[in-house]
Amino acid sequence: MTLPLIPESNHLNDYLAPSAVIDWQHPTILPLAKSLTQGIASVPEQVRVAYEWVRDRISHTYDIGESHVTCTASEVLHQGHGFCFAKAHLLAALLRSCGIPTGFCYQRLVFDDAQPDRFTLHGLNAVYLAEHNRWVRLDARGNKPGVQAEFCTNREQLAFPIRPHCGEVDYPTLYPQPHPKIITALQTHPTAPSLIAHLPATL
Questions:
Q1: CA 16: distance to chain centroid?
Q2: DSSP 47-106
Q3: Which of 117, 141, 166, 202 matches a 20 to 30 Å C-alpha distance to 131?
Q4: Which domain holds residue 89?
Q5: Cα(65)–Cα(127) distance, rounded to whole angstroms?
Q6: 4 domain-assigned
Q7: Is residue 5 part of a domain?
Q8: Residue 126 · residue 103 · CB < 8 Å
Q9: How far apart (Å, rounded) are the C-alpha atoms in residues 10 and 128?
Q10: 203 in a domain, yes or no?
């Protein structure tokens, strides 16, 4: 069952705005977005192409054993990797540069099944598809064995289905900008081990 999302703002323009983190006007992001979507008239298809590019071409920092923590969209693109939150920043920047409203959603997940009492936040996006008159959540974390997120307009296929019996939570709020807790964590802990040790567990 798809989670009913609650936009923090009722103004779609707020989900198009640039910011210091979602720096979609950066000279490296604009041409990439244009090249990915050139010749594609369908907005859902533009979203799919951009989503799959970030999901598959930008590595997850933890998966590849990188130490440096990225945050801004342009930094994620330059470095070629990011944690889930940072990859969501880049996807939002690419889609916003195409005029597609994109926001941020979060989940509370068990950090590791071996540590069932330890939780962490997980970040993903939601995109407004005007032809469907609704928001669609997308998870660009990156697929691996046991994780298979896809672009779907009629149903969600996220990286991590919520397990309520484990205390996991889908937060319904759809934010126009990344949550301040996330930005603080990414900017305060410059190395992956430090960030992992201090990931916020709840909004």
A1: 15
A2: HHHHHHHHHHHSEETTTTT--BPP-SHHHHHHHTEE-HHHHHHHHHHHHHHTT--EEEEE
A3: 141
A4: 13-197
A5: 30
A6: no
A7: no
A8: yes
A9: 12
A10: no
CB atoms within 10 A of CB 46: 21
Total domains in the fold of the chain: 1
Contact residues for 19 (Cβ-Cβ < 8 A; gap 6+): 177
- Ordered per-residue pLDDT tens for the chain, 203 residues: 578 899 999 999 999 999 999 999 999 999 999 999 999 999 999 999 999 999 999 999 999 999 999 999 999 999 999 999 999 999 999 999 999 999 999 999 999 888 889 999 999 999 999 998 999 999 999 999 999 999 998 889 999 999 999 999 999 999 999 999 999 999 999 999 999 999 999 99
Which single residue is written with the structure tokens 């054993």?
Answer: 65
**Rounded Cα–Cα distance for residues 186 and 37 (Å):** 29
CATH code at 30?
A: 3.10.620.30
DSSP states of the chain = -PPPPEES-S-GGGGT---SSS-TTSTTHHHHHHHHHTT---HHHHHHHHHHHHHHHSEETTTTT--BPP-SHHHHHHHTEE-HHHHHHHHHHHHHHTT--EEEEEEEEEEETTEEEEEEEEEEEEEEETTTTEEEEE--S--BTTB--B--SSS-B-SS---GGGT-EE--EEBSS--HHHHHHHHH--BHHHHHHT--S--
